[in-house]
Amino acid sequence: MKKKNEIVKPDGDLELRPEDEVKGVEPISLTKPIMINGTKYVSLTLNFEQLTGEHLERIEAELFQKGIVMTGPSETNKIYLMYVVAAAAGIGYNFIKTASLRDITKMTCLAQGFLMQ
């Protein structure tokens, strides 16, 4: 089912777009499409503004459960930032980690910039 902010491209790929240009909402074109539940996505929309302390609490709890220890500030930890990106995109971490290294770096830098501003 097509979401309100999805654009179906002529080749059948889905592209997620923000409904309005809002600070903290970042449309990201992916250099390598990712598959989410059998659908190929060529872009994602990261909505950092919708995140709350509850999201960050869940992220830290999940990292702790997996035995991942952050030795420095969480805002500089790539795995932590990948979880933030997944939450901002409204998708699971398992989908984000299948993105290309270039895309992950671009998205985690945006997350870090948002958290540090």
TrEMBL record:
Residue spans crossing the bilayer: 79-96
Keyword field: Membrane, Transmembrane, Transmembrane helix
Official protein name in the record: Phage tail assembly protein
Organism name: Limnobaculum xujianqingii
